[in-house]
């Protein structure tokens, strides 16, 4: 055993800096005198397990869940928790700046830029395709114009179609790979494919213009495959990282998971901004400081090829980083499969998910579909008002500059979404409903008076609606769909479900790109708004609100479903607050019972503790290092260890080869499933120590320094 790790049953000096248990500092001598078969006092149990079963950020001191409180008390409780957390974060930032003024910048780089680097590159390149198309039209009208003579119109349209289809294939395939082989493999594979794809785009060529268009289109398909994989892999790895690493508690998961994932996702907006700014700079450099046509062939070639070559450098670095600096990206998935004895793809979990979470899949996939129709339709505004404002200017720079303004406004929406995503009075579901509603209004208003709003008299209002639709799309469905498509599903098939939902979303983009080729502008505005209304209805009916609900509790519920006993789960994951209207109508929440759930949590923890003890004893018998398994981190404090050691039947330590529930537990019903698999195989992550939590004392093993390799 490591010298720096102290076992709870071994005498040791009090650990400096830790909040002591009510009886004094922990020294390893506090064994509870509870012989096997004795029924412990419930109040005594709550004193020991309170910090694990009823953490103070979601439970009151008397053990009431925040969502069960009367409205006035609920508001007061939630505001108190969120204000305290905000104060703690501001103090932490202050300490960081006092030590090093630039440390918050480096923290943001590590926690937002790096996790979202792939999506940043995706936003850069994919939106570059639309940005450089006006430049191609101005330079090669014989190919990209309405009366093309040298290129097939089908191949010009295929540039967009193949790009979207490549993304869809990547989302489905890499989603399955992420659940089958692992998150880490998916991350490395995506970065490598995107790097090769950028090289293909930079070097795309042909003996004729049509030959170049064909090469360009297939290069986009290849690159799109890697980009598509970024959606499920980045989302799942971002939200699982804090749960799997052992460095952040479930408290942080409850309070900040949405922000963590959204700050990675908003790098997509930065990618768009950097691309548009770089295109403007490159065009001015190679066009003698002017943005007016005509544009020389050399100018266009240098501009568009360099715009692809520059991000290739960053993508190559991303391949290196994911290969050598993210060795534990699949940790949570490995733990989930280990608990259920699954070595390949978990088809049983896939079948159970469609049966139990079919409504959620309809919500995530359907809402993403509706959102992408809007996301693509937003460009309808731009072309219309630019034509009026610019007075028919043929300069590409005019459109690029207005698009730059739009991206900046979108970024404001991204950041505001990140800020309020975890607010329990707004959160995911409300944000998506309001976003869809506002997008519906911003499109339906001009739809019936398009002639007025595209005239000089109404163009300012039209322009305002354009920017508002961009803002509410990001501060709404575009950010929420990316997050909830992963977090409302269990670990074994999380990437697959996210990939399927994202693929359905891109089907919406494909529908829009095809449909818009066959209908006029007025008809487009008649069609598009109703997708916003449909998205709002789907959200209201089928999407649960997981704001404030940690992944481990959701995985704990999944363990009961996986064991075929969903009715035996009584925890907060089936609280009406966290269920969709559809699930409530089906009676999913009727088994919610806080008292039964508290007892179940203790027995679930007992079984997990016994499993770890069994593994530790087996390793010691075999002469192995019992603390060397990266997947097992001891999160129980000394009091919990002593409680279980003195109230657990020794028969639980006998490994009978069964992966099912133990039959040796003192008070466990044999029909109850084992403790949650996967992300929640360690339900008891050390909660944040607070002065008003007298029973919270960290185990010494959970406070040892974490090496860079473990991070």
TrEMBL record:
Cellular compartments annotated: Membrane
Compositional bias segments (type: Basic and acidic residues): 1-14, 612-621
Key word Oxidoreductase present: no
Domain (Major facilitator superfamily (MFS) profile) ranges: 111-547
Membrane topology: Multi-pass membrane protein
Record region (Disordered): 1-30, 612-631, 647-711
Stretches that traverse the bilayer: 155-178, 185-205, 264-290, 302-321, 357-377, 397-421, 433-452, 497-519, 525-543
Chief location of this protein within or outside the cell: membrane
Biased composition (Polar residues): 660-683
Single GO MF annotation: transmembrane transporter activity
Top-rank taxon: Eukaryota
Keyword 4Fe-4S: no
GO cellular component: membrane
Start-end of Low complexity biased regions: 692-705
Keywords per UniProt: Membrane, Transmembrane, Transmembrane helix
Annotated protein name in UniProt: MFS phosphate transporter
Organism: Neurospora crassa (strain ATCC 24698 / 74-OR23-1A / CBS 708.71 / DSM 1257 / FGSC 987)
